[in-house]
Design a protein that fits this description.
The protein has helices spanning 17-32, 38-44, 49-65, 74-79, 89-106, 110-131, 145-153. The protein has 161 residues and is an all-alpha fold. It has a single domain, classed as Globin-like (Orthogonal Bundle). Bound molecules: protoporphyrin IX containing FE (HEM). The site of protoporphyrin IX containing FE (HEM) has 22 residues, from α2, α3, α4, α5 and α6.
């Protein structure tokens, strides 16, 4: 039996800002050391982590709990990276895999599922829009009613055309 087979410790759902901070810190700890993504932050964007992490706390608090006061422009921020590095499907898939793994390591419940869906929706939209890719998962006319309701529920209206 390897550590991968061990059941995860009992986990509670995300309940507010402190949980968002725990999730974001653990996630970017993985990202900054990741072979595919780390250098995009560290070398290409030269991310100031002391500024980026609070911005991401605000972003996710706004998305999930409707507080947090995020103001920003994720599409423009990521579009600026396209001429500088590769922002393809493999990069977004890695980002999502790290995000989902981190959520599952720390939390379980309705909000935990919602934040993973939300991240996947955002990744699809950002990837499609910044690369100008035809994206069935983003084509609004092809979304399921459940996806439409979820997209419409996100406060930063980057997802709804
Ligand atoms: C390939 C995947 C991704 C990469 C490499 C990436 C990289 C970055 C970088 C370099 C920044 C700027 C950090 C700085 O200020 O230096 C950033 C900002 C940000 N990212 Fe991502 N990102 C990815 C995917 C995502 C996804 C899927 C989401 C949402 C679920 C997201 C949400 C954000 C937000 C909200 C900001 C702040 C935007 C603003 O300042 O307006 N990112 N990202």
């Amino acid at each position: 039996m390897t550590s991968d087979d061990l059941p995860l410790a009992p986990r509670a759902d995300l309940t507010g800002r402190a949980d968002i901070e725990r999730l974001v810190d653990a996630f970017y700890d993985k990202v900054r050391h990741d072979d595919l993504l780390g250098f995009i932050f560290n070398d290409v964007a030269r991310t100031d982590w002391a500024a980026h992490l609070p911005k991401m706390y605000a972003f996710w608090e706004t998305m999930i709990f409707r507080s947090g006061g995020f103001t920003g422009n994720p599409l423009a921020t990521h579009a600026r990276l396209v001429p500088l590095t590769t922002m393809g499907r493999p990069q977004f898939d890695r980002w999502l895999a790290l995000f989902s793994t981190t959520v599952d390591e720390l939390f379980a419940g309705e909000k935990a599922e919602h934040i993973k869906n939300c991240a996947a929706d955002m990744a699809n939209v950002i990837h499609a829009k910044i690369n100008g890719v035809e994206q069935e998962r983003y084509d609004y006319s092809k979304l399921t009613p459940e996806q439409r309701a979820r997209y419409a529920s996100y406060k930063p209206k980057v997802l709804v055309p």
